[in-house]
UniProtKB/TrEMBL annotation:
InterPro entries, per database record: Aspartic_peptidase_A1, Pepsin-like_plant, PEPTIDASE_A1, Peptidase_aspartic_dom_sf, TAXi_C, TAXi_N
Underlying gene: LOC111471359
GO term, biological process aspect, one: proteolysis
Active site, renumbered: D92, D308
Species: Cucurbita maxima (Pumpkin)
Keywords noted in UniProt: Aspartyl protease, Glycoprotein, Hydrolase, Protease, Signal
Molecular functions per Gene Ontology: aspartic-type endopeptidase activity
Keyword hit for Hydrolase: yes
UniProt xrefs under CDD domains: pepsin_A_like_plant
Keyword Protease in annotation: yes
Domain Peptidase A1: 74-428
Protein name: Aspartic proteinase-like protein 2
Length: 484
């Protein structure tokens, strides 16, 4: 059985505009939605009216967990449209678009094994929905210039291809997103903003599968097209957010806004990168520094280390992976290693893995480090049966060969803070079932935000490694295709 796919996602390496594509991607506004489009001026006027100085903190409802044989992903609940309906979307810091499955789409999942109810977004049943045409600002700036062959009635289309081979195609719509604004300790009120997002018209086979199916993906990248950038540019929020993915109880905390507690040490983001990349300096196994070629962390070569919540595991290039695995097993000479699903190194072990295996510490610029314990990088697939979470990116990826990518395997059970205003990222080990404190920029007040769990993770052990291992792969390419 194929394990590869599953949950999914991640990051964008290429945005390219195809001026010739297949013709079935043309959506004609007049035929389907006669009279519903609005001019760009109307959008702008609307935005100016709505723009006020009310920067606030947002509390996103989170569910899911990072265990590779359970859901392997984290998702959030957001409202879209008027009247608002709820949508469950995978949170992915490795991509830049929010999209949801739309009414009438081809191969959209109708049921999910995650125990959530799926909903199709229907632009014509939301009174605040507007289609985005190819001549509008959002479209031309997303594609970096005028769209070849654009006519006033043609919609702005998108296509996103993720690293596991899955893809979504559709067109952009603008509508209200309804979120929970933090207004007190453990207290929120509904707030909304207007954003452009993708209306999924056609999903690839993997995104249509019911295992781990969701309504869409919420890209938390820093491009102008992401929800966070759009809300920030209309003055609603600051471009700062944090997640604490709880692999013990499921769900966790996902907040937009300045986090004042816990304090985290930070490292600069590598500039001019499509993803959240940081500079790695060294790797320690136990208390020994791993001996690696000097150019292994060279940023010209490697563009840094990608931090990506949309990927379940962690990927290391051959040159790091091989010596790391050798060191991990150096003290365990009697173990019989075998490969499961052609991808995972597994073994039987009946002791406490934290006693039998070394901790691994990654060191980053500005003295930020990330210590990963054996019970975090090893996962169990049956009693006493363990597999290694580290993956060899040389063997895994196609175009992204040789990358270093840290996914939920190492990000969970930590408060990870992305400060796009200051271009830093930081983290600290944290109890994601506890709470954090955020600042409401509008009033200056500091409020406590607690964890959420949209379902009980323990009740949803959807499968074993053989049927359901999510080796979520990375998004290699994002193609925004266009047709004329
Ligand atoms: C959005 O906010 C406005 C103003 O507060 C409110 O009138 C409207 O009902 C809200 N819309 C949704 C979908 O929540
Ligand atoms: C993103 O938006 C900012 C502010 O609106 C603008 O200055 C910048 O040029 C935009 N970036 C791109 C790549 O379009
Ligand atoms: C971001 O930078 C500004 C100006 O340098 C500084 O005042 C602020 O404290 C920084 N914010 C954080 C969260 O570090
Ligand atoms: C984490 O926090 C929760 C809620 O405060 C608490 O019940 C739990 O015991 C804490 N877990 C650990 C390991 O401290």
């Amino acid at each position: 059985m194929e394990i590869a796919r599953l949950a999914v996602v991640s990051f964008l390496l290429v945005i390219s505009l195809l001026s010739t594509g297949d013709c079935n991607l043309v959506f004609n506004v007049h035929h389907k939605f006669k009279g519903r489009e609005r001019s760009l001026e109307a959008f702008k006027a609307h935005d100016v009216l709505r723009r006020g100085r009310f920067l606030s903190a947002i509390d996103l409802n989170l569910g899911g967990n990072g265990h590779p044989s359970e859901s392997g992903l984290y998702f959030a609940k957001i409202g879209l449209g008027t009247p608002a309906k709820d949508y469950y979307v995978q949170v992915d810091t490795g991509s830049d678009l929010l999209w949801v499955n739309c009414a009438g789409c081809t191969n959209c999942p109708r049921k999910s094994d995650l125990g959530i109810e799926l909903t199709l977004y229907n632009p014509s049943s939301s009174s605040t929905s507007n289609l985005v045409t190819c001549g509008q600002d959002f479209c031309t700036s997303t594609y970096d210039g005028p769209i070849p062959g654009c006519r006033p009635e043609l919609l702005c289309e998108y296509k996103v291809a993720y690293g596991d081979g899955s893809s979504t195609t559709g067109y952009f719509v603008k509508d209200h997103v309804v979120l929970d604004r933090v207004t007190g300790n453990f207290k929120t009120e509904s707030t909304n903003g207007s954003i452009v997002f993708g209306c999924g018209a056609q999903q690839s086979v993997q995104l249509g599968a019911t295992s781990a199916a969701l309504d869409g993906i919420l890209g938390f990248g820093q491009a102008n097209s992401s929800m966070i950038s759009q809300l920030a540019s209309s003055g609603k929020i600051k471009r700062i957010f944090a997640h604490c993915l709880d692999n013990i109880n499921g769900g966790g905390i996902f907040a937009i806004g300045e986090v004042v507690q816990p304090k985290v040490r930070t490292t600069p983001l590598v500039q001019q990168q499509a993803h959240y990349n940081v500079f790695m300096k060294a790797i320690e196994v136990g208390d020994e520094v791993l001996n690696l070629p000097t150019d292994v962390f060279d940023t010209d070569l490697r563009k840094g280390t990608i931090i990506d919540s949309g990927t379940t595991l962690a990927y290391l290039p051959d040159v790091i992976y091989e010596p790391l695995i050798a060191k991990i097993f150096a003290r365990q000479t009697g173990l019989k290693l075998h490969t499961v699903e052609e991808q995972f190194t597994c073994f039987e072990y009946d002791g406490n893995v934290d006693d039998g295996f070394p901790t691994i510490t990654f060191h980053f610029e500005d003295s930020l480090s990330l210590t990963v314990h054996p019970h975090e990088y090893l996962f169990d697939i049956a009693s006493n049966k363990w597999c290694v979470g580290w993956q060899n990116s040389g063997a895994q990826s196609r175009d992204g060969k040789d990358m270093i990518l840290l996914g939920d395997l190492v990000l969970q059970n930590r408060l990870v803070l992305y400060d796009l205003e200051n271009q830093t990222i930081g983290w600290t080990e944290y109890n994601c079932s506890s709470s954090i404190k955020v600042r409401d920029e509008h009033s200056g007040a500091i409020y406590t935000v607690g964890p959420h769990n949209l379902y009980s993770a323990s009740s949803v052990r959807v499968g074993t490694i053989s049927s359901m291992l999510l080796s979520i792969l990375l998004l290699l390419t994002v193609l925004h295709s266009f047709t004329n």
